[in-house]
Design a protein that fits this description.
heterodimer; A: mainly alpha; MetI-like fold; 2 domains; two-stranded antiparallel ribbon; 2% strand; B: 300 residues; mainly alpha; two-stranded antiparallel sheet; 3% strand; Sugar_ABC_transporter (chain B)
Chain lengths: 268, 300
C-alpha cells in the first residue's frame, strides 16, 4: 500500500473545491441578469441561452476568440519549430557557453511580463506590428521558446544516442534524420511542449492587451466591455468566461495520458 | 551519457538565440536607457545617472516606500502560498487513484484551472466571493461571518490567497504525481517485507523521488507568484487601499498609469535582478541535485 488513509475523501474534497467556482460561473452564464441580481439560486430557474447568443452573433465578441486563437496558434508553431533543433543541440552536444545560454533562456521564462509591457509596446509600434496577432505571438515567444527548449531537451535526452549514430551510419543526412527519425520518436514530447505553449499563451493577458488595440484584441480584453453605464452585465461576462475555458478543456482531453509526465517536463 | 564537444551545435541554437534575444535584449536596452534619464515631456530626455535607483532604494522617498512596501507584500504572499500549496499538492498527489478511468478524470479536472485565462480566474473569484451574487460570499455572510473582500484587508488577502491555491495547487500535485509514478512497485514490496510504516515509506521512498520535481514546482510557483498581476488586479484592483498591490501591479501603475518612464525602468531593472538571482540559486541547486543523484541511482 502506498496511498494515504482516507484518500478518496481528500481527493473528493479537493475536486469539489476546484469545481465549485467553475460551476458557479457556468450556472450564472445560463441565468438572466434579473435572476442573478434578485435571487440566490443554486441552479438557473429560468435557463436562458441569451448570453451565449449575444456572443455568437456579435462580431466584436466572437472576433475576440478568433484573435486569441490566432496568436496562440502562431506562437505555438513558432516556439516548437525554433526550439526543436536547439533542444537537440543542448541534449547531445557540449559547446562554448552552453550552460550559460541555457540558464539565460531559463531566466527569460521567469521574466515578469510587467517589465516588458512598455518596451514591447515601443518595439512593436516601431516595427509596425502593433495591433496584429504577430506582435502578441512574438512577445509570447519570450517565455514560451525557453519553456519549449526545456521540455523538449528532456524528451530528446530520453532517446538513446545509438539511434542517431545508427541513422548516420545508414547514410541519413542530418535534416532527414531529424524529420524521419527523431521527430516521430519524441512525438509525445512535442505534444506536451505544444500543450504548454498553448496554455501559457492562452492564459496570458497583460502583454496581449498592451500590444493590441482594435484589430487583434484578445477575448480577455473584450470581456472588460461588460462593464457599462447600466452596471455589470454579469450573465454575459459569465458566458464569455465559460467559453474561454472550453479550448483549454479540449486540449487537456487530448493530452490527458501525457499530462503527468508533461508537467514534470520530461524529467522524471 | 557523456556529451560530445561540438561547436557546430551553435548553428542549431542560433534561431532560438535570435528570437529570444529579439524579445528580451532589445526591450531591456530600452529599459536601461530610460532608467538613467529624466524627461519633461516632448521627447526631451536628460541624463539622470543613478538618480532613479537612489530614490528607488531609499525607503524614505515616495518611490522607495512604495517599492519596499510592495516587495515585502509580494514576498509575504509568495511565502504564504508556497506554505499552503506545496504540502497540499503532495497530499493530493498521494491521494490520487492508482488505476482505472478515475485517474484520467482526476487529471483532467485538476488541470482545468491551469488553462483558464488569468483574468477569467480573477473574474470567477470576483463573482464567487461577492456577498450579493456569489456562492462563497453569500454562504459566509449567511453563516454570520462578515466577509467582504472589497472593503476588508484581511478578506481581500484571504480571497487572493485562496484563489491562488485554487489556481495553482494542481501544478504542484501533477508534478509530484509524475514523480510518484516513476517509483517501481518493487520498492513498495520491499518496504512491506521490512514492515516499514506509512511514514517511513513516505520519507525513505516517496519524498526522495519527488525531490527533483518538487524543486521545479517550488521554482515555478515562487516565480509566478512573485510576478502575479492579472488575478489580484481583477479581483481587488490592488486594494483596499494598497493592501494587495504586488510588485507587478505597482510597476504597471507607474509605467502605464503615470507614464513615469525613469522610475518604472529603474524598478524594472531591480525587479529583474532579484528574479535572475533567485533563478540562478535554484538552477545551481537543481544542477547539483542532478549531478549528485546520478552515481547513486538504482542503489536505494
Amino acid at each position: 500500500m502506498h496511498s494515504i488513509p482516507g484518500r478518496r475523501i481528500v481527493m473528493a474534497l479537493y475536486l469539489l473545491f476546484l469545481l465549485l467556482p467553475i460551476y458557479w460561473l457556468v450556472n450564472m452564464s445560463f441565468k438572466t441578469n434579473g435572476e442573478i441580481v434578485s435571487t440566490m439560486t443554486l441552479w438557473p430557474h429560468q435557463p436562458t441561452l441569451e448570453n451565449y447568443r449575444t456572443i455568437f452573433t456579435d462580431p466584436s465578441w466572437y472576433s475576440g476568440y478568433i484573435n486569441s486563437l490566432q496568436y496562440v496558434v502562431i506562437n505555438t508553431v513558432l516556439s516548437i519549430s525554433f526550439a526543436l533543433p536547439a533542444a537537440y543541440a543542448f541534449s547531445r552536444y557540449r559547446f562554448l557557453g552552453d550552460k550559460h545560454l541555457f540558464f539565460w533562456l531559463l531566466s527569460n521564462r521567469m521574466a515578469p511580463a510587467a517589465v516588458y509591457a512598455l518596451p514591447f509596446f515601443n518595439l512593436y509600434s516601431a516595427i509596425n506590428l502593433f495591433d496584429t496577432p504577430w506582435a502578441v505571438a512574438l512577445a509570447h515567444c519570450l517565455f514560451n521558446v525557453p519553456l519549449a527548449v526545456w521540455i523538449l531537451e528532456g524528451f530528446v535526452s530520453g532517446v538513446p544516442r545509438e539511434i542517431d549514430e545508427t541513422a548516420f551510419l545508414d547514410g541519413y543526412s542530418f535534416p532527414r534524420f531529424f524529420v524521419k527519425i527523431l521527430i516521430p520518436l519524441i512525438a509525445s514530447g512535442i505534444g506536451v511542449a505544444a500543450f504548454f505553449c498553448f496554455m501559457f499563451s492562452w492564459v496570458e493577458l497583460l502583454l496581449a492587451r498592451t500590444l493590441t488595440s482594435v484589430n487583434a484584441k484578445p477575448i480577455a480584453a473584450v470581456m472588460t466591455r461588460t462593464v457599462s453605464a447600466a452596471g455589470m452585465d454579469w450573465g454575459l461576462l459569465a458566458a464569455a468566461g465559460v467559453l474561454t475555458i472550453i479550448p483549454g478543456a479540449l486540449v487537456i482531453w487530448f493530452v490527458r495520458n501525457y499530462i503527468a509526465r508533461g508537467f514534470a517536463l520530461g524529467r522524471v | 551519457m557523456e556529451k560530445i564537444v561540438n561547436q557546430k551545435a551553435w548553428f542549431l541554437v542560433l534561431p532560438v538565440f535570435a528570437i529570444v534575444a529579439f524579445s528580451a535584449i532589445l526591450p531591456l536596452m530600452t529599459v536601461v536607457n530610460y532608467s538613467v534619464q529624466d524627461t519633461f515631456g516632448n521627447n526631451q530626455f536628460f541624463w539622470n545617472g543613478v538618480g532613479w535607483f537612489k530614490e528607488l532604494l531609499d525607503p524614505s522617498t515616495d518611490l522607495g516606500g512604495r517599492f519596499f512596501a510592495s516587495l515585502w507584500r509580494n514576498l509575504a504572499f509568495s511565502a504564504i502560498i508556497l506554505a499552503i500549496e506545496v504540502p497540499l499538492g503532495i497530499v493530493v498527489a498521494l491521494a490520487m487513484p492508482r488505476h482505472g478511468w478515475s485517474v484520467a478524470a482526476c487529471l483532467v479536472i485538476m488541470a482545468l484551472p491551469l488553462l483558464i485565462p488569468w483574468n477569467v480566474v480573477g473574474t470567477i473569484w470576483q463573482i464567487f466571493g461577492r456577498p450579493d451574487i456569489g456562492l462563497l460570499g453569500y454562504t459566509l455572510n449567511g453563516l454570520g461571518i462578515n466577509y467582504n473582500y472589497v472593503s476588508n484587508e484581511f478578506d481581500a488577502w484571504a480571497t487572493v490567497v485562496v484563489m491562488d491555491v485554487w489556481h495553482w495547487t494542481s501544478l504542484v500535485a501533477l508534478l509530484c504525481y509524475a514523480g510518484l509514478k516513476s517509483i517501481p512497485d518493487a520498492y513498495y514490496q520491499a518496504a512491506q517485507i521490512d514492515g516499514a510504516s506509512r511514514w517511513a515509506v513516505f520519507k525513505a521512498i516517496q519524498l526522495p523521488k519527488m525531490h527533483r520535481v518538487l524543486l521545479i514546482a517550488v521554482l515555478l510557483r515562487f516565480m509566478d507568484s512573485f510576478m502575479i498581476y492579472t488575478e489580484p488586479f481583477v479581483v481587488t484592483g490592488g486594494g483596499p487601499g494598497n493592501s494587495t498591490t504586488f510588485i507587478s501591479i505597482e510597476l504597471v501603475k507607474i509605467a502605464l498609469g503615470q507614464f513615469d518612464l525613469g522610475k518604472a525602468a529603474a524598478l524594472s531593472i531591480v525587479y529583474n535582478l532579484i528574479i535572475i538571482i533567485v533563478c540562478w540559486v535554484f538552477y545551481t541547486v537543481m544542477t547539483n541535485a542532478g549531478a549528485e543523484r546520478r552515481p547513486t541511482e538504482g542503489s536505494v
